[in-house]
Every structure is written in C-alpha cells, then in structure tokens.
Sequence to fold (157 residues):
Amino acid sequence: MEIRRFKIGDEAALFRVFFSAIHGIASRDYTPDQIEAWAPSDLDPKLWVSRVRGIRPFVAEADGEIVGYADVQPSGYIDHFFVSGDHARQGIGSLLMRRIHQEAKLLGVDELTSQVSKTAEPFFVLHGFHVVERRFPICSGVTLQNALMRKTLKCET
Ligand SMILES: CC(C)(COP(=O)(O)OP(=O)(O)OC[C@H]1O[C@@H](n2cnc3c(N)ncnc32)[C@H](O)[C@@H]1OP(=O)(O)O)[C@@H](O)C(=O)NCCC(=O)NCCS
Fold:
C-alpha cells in the first residue's frame, strides 16, 4: 500500500472511489435520495476534475489500484475523505489519516477540522476528533446530516 500525492490523470479513479464509498458504505446511514444527492451518477465530469484538482488529495494505491483518497487544506480543513466500498475496514482510512497528520505538522496548523458524515463519525472519533456542532446542510434540495468535527493538535517544541 502506497500513500502518494494526487497526480493529473487520477481524477476518474477518484470518482470511482467517491461513488463507491458513498453508495457502498454511507448508504447504510442515509436514504437513497440522500445518497443520490450526495454522489449523483451523472455528476458533471468537468466539475469533478476541477474539484479534485483543487483539493490536491493524498491517494492510497494498492497494486496499482486507487482505493482511497483524502486531503488536508493549509487551514487544516479536511474536505474529502473516502475509501472504496470494496476496501473498507482494512486500515486504509487510518493510513490516510496518519499521512494527513504528518502533512498538518509540515503545514504548521494547530487544528484539523472536517464536516463528517454520520458514517465516518466513529472513525474520526477514533482518531481523536470531537463533534463541535451537528449540521443539516441541503444538497440538491435534500438535507444531508453531518457534524463539524475538530481535533486540536499538540504543539511540539
Ligand atoms: C470512514 C472511512 C473513510 C473509513 O475508512 P476505512 O479504511 O474503512 O477505515 P479503517 O479501516 O482505517 O478503520 C479504522 C477503525 O475506524 C472505525 N471505523 C471505520 N469505519 C467505521 C464505520 N463505518 N463504522 C464504525 N466504525 C468505523 C473502526 O473502529 C475501525 O477499526 P476496525 O475495522 O478494526 O473496527 C470509510 O468508511 C468511508 O469512506 N466511508 C464512507 C464515506 C464517508 O462517509 N466519508 C467521509 C466523508 S466526511
């Protein structure tokens, strides 16, 4: 398993991971309408390409196959965090989380934040995050409950 930086050409594989994580894993916690609003099968490919190029995620690759990805922004905000439905509970998310923590240290940020799905909340709790606020954002006319979560990072001198 390799964790590497995003490169141009990864976009379609990342969409497959995003789609499979939401339709295959998060579908246990959200209704079909919510799942379709969150990850529509007809998502505009141009929009997707500009979205993933904009966040510059870390990519988890096993035997040449992209199986997960996650980003951290210079502010410490994690925008996307997804592991393919076929590769859940194999430690891939934890490897990505470890890489994000290393990057946060390099960036000098003192906290990590994310808007976390109901599905991912126990995973984020395991990695030291706590819920700041429960939120009910509307996506394509459908409410998608999530939680703003935060982790304060220790300053090391
Ligand atoms: C959340 C997610 C990223 C976790 O990735 P993962 O590779 O499966 O995570 P790991 O294998 O490293 O899990 C480590 C531990 O986190 C916890 N955990 C992970 N997924 C969990 C889940 N769905 N429910 C409860 N606990 C979970 C468990 O304690 C797990 O250890 P265990 O498997 O030994 O019990 C992945 O399930 C996912 O993509 N989910 C759907 C999409 C989503 O909601 N993304 C987040 C958007 S904010």
The first helix runs from residue 11 to 24.
